[in-house]
Amino acid sequence: MAIDLPPLPYPKDALAPVISTQTLEFHHGKHHQAYVTNTNKLIAGTDLESADLETLIRKTAGDPAKAGLFNNAAQVWNHTFYWHCLKPNGGGKPTGAIAGRIQADFGSYEKFLEDFKNAAVTQFGSGWAWLALAGGKLEILKTANADTPLVHGKKALLTVDVWEHAYYLDYQNRRPDYVAAVLEKLVNWEFVNSQL
Ligand code: FE
Question: Which residues are within 5 Å of ligand 1 (an ion), measured at CB?
Fold first, then answer.
């Protein structure tokens, strides 16, 4: 069973000007595609050939001999999740059940925003900022490179990709501006609620 590149859940120009068409063309069409291609090459002819993506990630996590496969498979998962966390005309204050959970666990939306931005901006080098559910409580975390909450027993609810390839064409080195714009204008809170 080959791993497929899922299509974007919206047209490539749908997130502009926050995330440009050109960024989505490269980010989905080249970077995400490369992780899919590499994953398929690395599992071809092995006992993991017919495993699904989550199984691949869980079975290779923490194994130095399988780091290449883990990195590519986890990046396939992380990117598919990231695309679904975004939508045109999204962002701003949450709606639905997640709004109450954020209020309860962070004290306010503003505090959540501050903590999430801080995680995204302080992730040194490539990685991801996450809102996740851990032991029944919301938690903000940052992960390096391909690392992902599901191998730490946490359920991802929202992510922002902070690899330079996610924002460099549109924001150059201004990662804080990219993160703020995504949170303000693109977060798909309906999707976040669907993951609760
Ligand atoms: Fe990326």
Answer: 161, 163, 166
Distance 102 CA to ligand 1 centre (A): 26
pLDDT of res. 1: 64
List, for residues 95-136, the tens digit of each pLDDT value. Answer: 999 999 999 999 999 999 999 999 999 999 999 999 999 999
C-alpha of residue 104 to centroid of ligand 1, in Å? 31
Which H, E and C letters describe the chain, residue by residue?
Answer: CCCCCCCCCCCCCCCCCCCCHHHHHHHHHHHHHHHHHHHHHHHCCCCCCCCCHHHHHHHHCCCHHHHHHHHHHHHHHHHHHHHHHECCCCCCCCCCHHHHHHHHHHCCHHHHHHHHHHHHHHCCCCEEEEEEEECCEEEEEEEECCCCHHHHCCEEEEEEECCHHHCHHHHCCCHHHHHHHHHHHCECHHHHHHHC
Are 139 and 102 within 8 A, CB to CB? Answer: no
What residues have CB less than 8 Å from 180, skipping those under 6 apart?
Answer: 117
Express each pLDDT in 56-67 by its tens digit. Answer: 999 999 999 999
pTM value is: 0.97
**Average pLDDT value for residue range 42-49:** 96
